[in-house]
Amino acid sequence: MAGREALEAEHPHAAAGEPIERRAAGGAEPTDDDIEMSHIASLHHDAVLFLHFLRCRVFGRNAEFHPRLREGGHVPENAPVKVPRVKLTYAEVLFAIILVAAAGGLAAAQGVPLPRPRPLPPAAAVSSDEPSAPEAAPPTACRLRLTAALATAPSLPPITGPGECGAPDVVRLEAVVLPDQSRVAIAPPAILRCSMAEAIVSWVREEAAPHALELGSSLKTLANLASFDCRGRNRIVGAKLSEHGKGNALDIHLLKLSDGKVVGLTDPQIPRDFREGLRQSVCARFTTVLGPGSDGYHEDHVHVDLAERRNGYRICEWDVREPAEASSAVLADTVPLPRPRPLAAR
Ligand SMILES: [Zn+2]
What we know:
By secondary structure, the chain is α+β, with helices and mostly antiparallel strands. It has 2 domains: 2-110, no CATH class; 145-332, no CATH class. The protein has 9 helices and 12 strands. The strands form 2 sheets. Strands 1, 2, 5, 6, 7, 8, 9, 10, 11 and 12 form a 10-stranded mixed sheet that branches. It has a two-stranded antiparallel ribbon with strand order 3-4. The radius of gyration is 41 Å and the shape is globular.
């Protein structure tokens, strides 16, 4: 505000609202600072005029002090205008400040080219809650093979940790698409590395679904008891890392058919041939199969994984029991004896 008074003192004939040029003695072009100062002074001047106009309208005070307002804004462009000094209330001062700020912002938006906002760097554009994701790797050969024609299996970020746990190329296997386009749900969806998911998909399409037809209905759901799970073998703390901790294992509990039938894989009441057919098929496709009779931890489900061992060594331990055998096995399992089994992944 003092700036305008100082400028008006220097330029007593400048019209109100008219930009005041402050030229150097040599007549050089005005600098950016001069133009800016002129803008501010002009805005201040207009704000005060507008304020007086409002006061007169609202409070009925006479408006004769300002010739431009009194004459309906008709004054010669070059006529000098003297702005009277008036006492302002706090509310009026506040209003004037807001008005000037708004007018200044508008003027800046209209007249002064502002620097373009810089684009955010990639790290800042990502949610700050999560560590910045590494650059997306190209899809693996497995990922390219596991198409929507075979399964609903969206990709997930690689799992890293805790500890030794982790898996690259992870998918969430939600459903298998059969050759007739019907779907077998994986319930709940299994979190698996792609190669394991692909093996499950192939087994369901080529073995489980055709075998289920032997029971008189089509396969509808595969019950997933455990997929990725960062833990030691058989849930024993401190034991060697389970293949589940690598997203490389699946525990299958039971199958559900379209007619509502529930088929427990280890249920001795389910036709033996059906269970034997499944046993042979998983032992041919997975490097580890653990079911009833393996170690006491797999009496009610079957564990399958793709653990890699020296010389291609495989484990296939699933006793397909008759009903009488099963009941005696259950009795035997009630005796709390340790059953040390120095075997591989569970
Ligand atoms: Zn398991």
